[in-house]
Amino acid sequence: SSAATPIRATLFPGDGIGPEIAESVKQVFRTADVPIEWEEHYVGDQIDPRTQSFLTWESLESVRRNGVGLKGPMATPIGKGHRSLNLTLRKELNLYANVRPCYSLPGYKTRYDNVNLITIRENTEGEYSGLEHQVVRGVVESLKIITRQASLRVAEYAFHYAKTHGRERVSAIHKANIMQKTDGLFLKCCREVAEKYPEIKYEEVVIDNCCMMLVKNPALFDVLVMPNLYGDIISDLCAGLIGGLGLTPSCNIGEGGIALAEAVHGSAPDIAGKNLANPTALLLSAVTMLRHLKLHDKADRIQDAVLNTISEGKYRTADLGGSSSTTEFTNAICDHI
Ligand code: NAD
């Protein structure tokens, strides 16, 4: 095992298939000798009054203390009087950017084989500020909030990401021709940050045109940064380009450099406990966590092993048209490592 002092990271195995795919990640990390020590936290079945949610204060403190974490899918508990788990995490940890690397998996055929882009979504405001009301009967109003502070923060993250990950270009996605004030401010902030990064090309693309370009030729894009609603839609569109949500990793960036990586898919109750789940999305999310920690050699080894296993085609889970169990697929990845 590794001689270096281990880095502590919070692990939320989550619900449904969560514990099965989290087990996969733990096994792969052990095999690759990753110097991470997991602090496991489960979602409770009672509301913690300090968080008004099923997530305990101790769980949130664990992420704050460690600064890094990995989150499995969490089923939305039914009933009133509590906050949604994802909302609690986003608000309490101030997770302001959602980052999704999106690249074609070699050997897994989709319509495109040359996708290699990153979507960076502002995650705290825009149309998702939750400010809606009825003006009079038959007329409702929703407020889209764009602030200089949140726009600069996400733009800064996007350019910093581009610079530190060998990317060449940042595209700001907008509709400032119609949303002149809000998207206009977002673009103004992106331009200000762009000036500090002369080595990174900067462009602005109107969202409708962006959609057309993405489905015609996704290779046209490198790093995309955008307000909340556009990011929600475009990031799922991009996941579709490479084979769906089951394969797509993501990472949430919070105040003070917190990184909470998570698979994009849900808890898959239909296949939970059956050893059928595909751990790829959670594994690749764990890889984004390693990259955040600058453990690039470990990240490369694990990413290559996952991609090679899928590309070989001998061991694949059912969602990718194979017949392997979660355990068989995981063992094959470990053999590649
Ligand atoms: P889901 O993603 O759980 O499942 C949709 C379909 O995809 C199912 O057929 C499922 O079997 C399949 N699938 C998903 N992940 C898979 C994997 N890794 N391997 C193989 N197949 C996989 O979506 P849903 O059914 O709409 O939601 C179920 C629960 O998950 C709900 O409680 C929902 O609130 C929750 N959810 C949580 C998150 C999150 O924590 N970020 C995200 C989405 C949904």
From TrEMBL:
- Cofactor or coenzyme needed: Mn(2+); Mg(2+)
**Short name of one Pfam family for this protein?**
Iso_dh
List, alphabetically, the InterPro entries matched.
IsoCit/isopropylmalate_DH_CS (IPR019818), Isocitrate_DH_NAD (IPR004434), IsoPropMal-DH-like_dom (IPR024084)
- Provide the Isopropylmalate dehydrogenase-like domain boundaries: 8-333
Which keywords annotate this record?
A: Magnesium, Metal-binding, NAD, Oxidoreductase, Transit peptide
Record keyword Signal present: no
Top-level lineage group: Eukaryota
| Record-stated family | Belongs to the isocitrate and isopropylmalate dehydrogenases family.
Q: Which PANTHER family match?
A: DECARBOXYLATING DEHYDROGENASES-ISOCITRATE, ISOPROPYLMALATE, TARTRATE, ISOCITRATE DEHYDROGENASE [NAD] SUBUNIT ALPHA, MITOCHONDRIAL
Q: What is this protein called?
A: Isopropylmalate dehydrogenase-like domain-containing protein
> What organism, scientifically named, is this protein from?
Citrullus colocynthis (colocynth)
